[in-house]
Amino acid sequence: MTQSHFFVYLSRLKFINRWPLMRNVRTENVSEHSLQVAMVAHALAVIKNKKFNGNMNANRIAMLALYHDVSEVLTGDLPTPVKYYNAQIAREYKKIEKIAQQQLLEMLPEELQDVYRPLLMDKNQYPKKEQLLVKQADALCAYLKCLEEISAGNNDFSVVKEHLKKILLRCRSPEIDYFVEVFIPSFNISLDKISQDLSL
User: Fold this and answer.
1) What is the Cβ-side half-sphere exposure of residue 101, based on CA atoms within 13 angstroms?
2) 185 HSE (CA, 13 A, CB side)
3) Please, how many CA atoms are within 13 Å of residue 46, restricted to the half-sphere of its CB?
4) pLDDT at 122 exceeding the cut of 80
5) β partners of residue 17
6) Which tens digit of pLDDT belongs to each residue from 76-106?
């Protein structure tokens, strides 16, 4: 049986730091970001299904979210202002991303590649509404990072927070409104206050 380097590469996502142009009170890596995006995307799908008559495959969406940034283990996390500086750079980065995704796919044993191909490369096999939910969760998690940094006294994230707020308003949906109303206020409360609320 041939050995594969696929999962040892994925384990190194914890060494790829996000927000490289920003001063961070606490550094966030791609591994923990991916986990949070998967949890939030799953929650958005569940909320849509339970509260707004949706028919989303929450588990599949969580998996899609979990793998949404894995190519960064080979490319690094290119800062958004650089990645989208102009259309040409954005196109070229997409090409680099595709090459990295293909390299990761080829690390897998051939008999497993058909399962991982949609997660790594052919995301168009998933319905657009599922892809959109992952993008919304990604934006929500970036917004949460801003709240955490600002509450720790780092105002470098203030402009990014306002930009992300506009993005979330543009892709507004009932499930995002629900998530924002029910879960986000806790991110502005100290752990001591949350603990007090729980003990009442």
Assistant:
1) 17
2) 6
3) 9
4) no
5) 29
6) 887 776 677 688 888 888 899 999 999 999 9
Tens of pLDDT, residue by residue over 138-161, are 999 999 999 999 999 999 999 999
Q: List the alpha helices (DSSP H) in the chain.
A: 6-11, 30-51, 58-66, 72-75, 80-83, 87-107, 110-120, 128-151, 158-170, 174-182, 191-199
Domain boundaries, the chain: 6-199
Dist CA 61 CA 130 (whole Å): 6
pLDDT in tens, 6-28: 999 999 999 999 998 899 999 99
pTM: 0.91
Through-space distance between the first and last CA atoms of the chain, rounded to whole angstroms: 57
CA torsion sign, 97 to 68 to 171 to 156?
A: negative
In angstroms and rounded to an integer, the radius of gyration of the C-alpha atoms of the chain is 18
Its CATH architecture, for the domain 6-199, is Orthogonal Bundle (1.10)
- Coil, strand, or helix at residue 85? coil
CA 119 to chain centre: 14
The first and second tokens of residue 69, run together, are: 């940034």
